[in-house]
Request: fold
Amino acid sequence: MGKIPYFKPIDAEVDGNKLRLAISGKDRLGLLLGMIDGAKSTLRLFFYIFGNDATAEKVRGALIAARQRGVKIWLLVDGFGSANWADEVFKPLIDAGVFFARFNPRWGRGYLLRNHQKIVVADDARAIIGGSNVLDHYFADDPNGESWHDLLLQIEGPAVGRLGRYFDGLRRWTASERPTLRMLLHLMSRRSDKSGNIRWLFNGPFSRLSPLTRSIRQDIGSAKCCDMIQAYFAPNWGMLRRLANVEKRGGDMRLISAARSDNFATVAAARHCYRRLLRNRIRIFEYQPQMLHVKLIVADNTVYIGSANFDMRSLYINGEVMVRIEDGGFAERMRGLVDAHVPYCNEISREEHRAESTWLTRLRWLIAYFVVSTVDFTVTRTISLKRR
Reply:
């Protein structure tokens, strides 16, 4: 498969907040462990998946060391994402005095509602969000293995306190005797920022558009330049139309999607969407060196980074968090990052896509899109909204 490219960390400052974007696996793990090692008073962590391998052991060891020097620690994991690891895996942390709980809805649909967020907040002064879970392959740079290419963003400054307050509300909801969906959605709505150059935006199974999805729709809907790197790309046709309209307005649109993944259906579902985009002169690339796990949107001077994929579950159902950063200089740096990925991609031309689109292949793509974007979405959303 070849050598994994190295992308240097990117540093910036926006509204008095220092930003550091770590891209390559070694840098992302160093950023996470450095955050834990540097904590002085408090650590709040939420992960969709927290496993039990060498990377998880390093993180557990760092958390135990932090607890031993007096840091108060709260660790939440998603009940579905981390279901493969029993509470016994977390016993050393609990024995060290770490507060541990699972996000596990108690109204009979725990399998369907997932909290896909990844959040670390240290001392109410520094925060990390992004896509990486706590397992080896999320931080490995191995072209021959199942390693993921991803992003983690560290923010240091006044914006961090608002994310910490969201975490505290989520922790109280998780620990309450009768947590309801209405309470959770109220928390996500109330803690989503409505203004500012750095905004925390949250998503869940709202009956209408969530603050996160509404914001993304508005920014894409008016953008004259849009770049995206998306691990899972299977939006509805309304969102595809908004993307196509970027070019119709005389703008430029690029999409980098996954050439390979842990689930063939997600790649096939994305390829089902290509035809409409290519017809509107949108350039599409598939990233080759690793499985892709990045969630990045750059729309004019606005950047989104966080946990949400560009698919129906992430945009309309999952618990997700993205940070919206409005800054022309930072957006330009992120476009440069997209530029740096292009040489490691295969560009999908309209002619190539048409040649590959045999009737059997189109049928497979259609079935994959139907399962990923329609069946899973409809069943989950129907149950969720009926049981508020």
Observations:
- Residues 308 and 314 are 5 Å apart (CA to CA).
- The longest helix spans residues 359-386.
